[in-house]
UniProtKB/TrEMBL annotation:
InterPro entries recorded: ADH-like_N (IPR013154), ER (IPR020843), GroES-like_sf (IPR011032), NAD(P)-bd_dom_sf (IPR036291)
Name under which the protein is recorded: Alcohol dehydrogenase
GO terms assigned for molecular function: mRNA 3'-UTR AU-rich region binding; NADPH binding; quinone reductase (NADPH) activity
GO CC term, one of those recorded: cytosol
Native source organism of the sequence: Actinokineospora bangkokensis
Highest taxon of the lineage: Bacteria
Ranges of residues in domain Enoyl reductase (ER): 10-293
């Protein structure tokens, strides 16, 4: 089978598509034929910082594919599934023709979209969902999402709007203002000076806007490892949030996609033999959707 592996720290040229033996399915695991995956910022960070003791490694966190073999009652041969694998921690990369993953990481893929579209959901969707669950906002409360037109931010905007939360978006460029509004933001801007004061801030872009959260509010970030100094003493919950593997959460997200509450976006699509070009396009930024790799 083919896999995209990292041989050395570096840029996109450090990635190699090579032939490897197919994995064996362990007890409690499901063997999956990968149809598509997507590129996330963590992949580029891993590519740049991976130590020699971990190399070579197969990269990739997202997976959308078809079950090849399973002894789990929830998944049968031929089922369309999605999964997120915490590659850097577990060593289970998804950029391979065939992947074996624990059954509790999987969910049935949304039926209303292609597997290429479904591949954009796992990491970004779980990141947004887990932060929204932690914020525990209710209808009528206010939320600022930074990076509101991005992969995580765009899904967070849609989740908030679905729950009746008044959501405002901060974007990186004027041409993304309308995109954030189309996703459900009540208003959007690319100017930090135009922000109000909110019950919560969800920072997906590493943009420090401590002035935008009310005293006693919440301020969570997935775009940085810390929050601005002094913020923790003003808020009920302030800090970074790290995504966790969660098949049940993916099932919740898939149901929302099929209900029309979440729209998935592909910004560009490349076959795996063009992985260098795919990474370069992802790093250019500016896309209103994720870069998808097809197998």
């Amino acid at each position: 089978m083919r896999a995209i592996q990292l041989d050395r720290p570096g840029g996109p040229d450090a990635l190699t598509v090579r032939e490897l033996p197919a994995p064996a399915r362990a007890d409690g695991e499901v063997l999956i034929r990968t149809i598509a995956s997507s590129i996330n910022p963590v992949d580029s960070k891993t590519r740049a910082m991976a130590g020699p003791e971990r190399l070579p490694m197969t990269l990739g966190w997202d997976l959308a594919g078809v079950v090849l073999a399973s002894d789990h009652p929830g998944f049968s041969t031929g089922d369309r599934v999605i999964a997120m694998s915490a590659q850097f921690a577990t060593g289970r990369g998804t950029w391979a023709d065939i992947v074996s993953l624990p059954a509790d990481l999987l969910a049935v893929a949304p039926a209303s979209v292609s597997l290429s579209e479904a591949a954009t959901l796992p990491l970004a969707g779980l990141t947004a969902l887990q932060v929204m669950d932690r914020l525990r906002l209710t209808a009528g409360q206010t939320l600022l999402v930074t990076g509101a037109a991005g992969a995580v931010g765009g899904l967070a905007v849609q989740l908030a709007a679905h729950d009746g939360i008044t959501v405002h978006g901060l974007v990186s460029r004027p041409e993304h203002v309308d995109a954030a509004r189309r996703l459900g933001a009540d208003t959007a801007t690319d100017q930090t000076g135009e922000l109000g004061c909110y019950d919560a801030v969800f920072d997906t872009a590493g943009v420090h806007v401590p002035q935008a959260v009310k005293d006693g509010g919440k301020y969570l970030t997935v775009g940085a490892d810390t929050v601005p100094d002094g913020l923790a003493s003003r808020t009920l919950d302030a800090g970074p949030n790290y995504v966790e593997q969660d098949g049940a959460g993916l099932s919740r997200l898939a149901a929302l996609v099929d209900a029309g509450a979440l729209r998935l976006r592909i910004g560009a699509q490349f076959p795996i033999h063009q992985s260098h070009q795919a990474h370069r396009r992802a790093e250019q930024g500016g896309l209103l959707g994720k870069v998808v790799l097809t197998f």
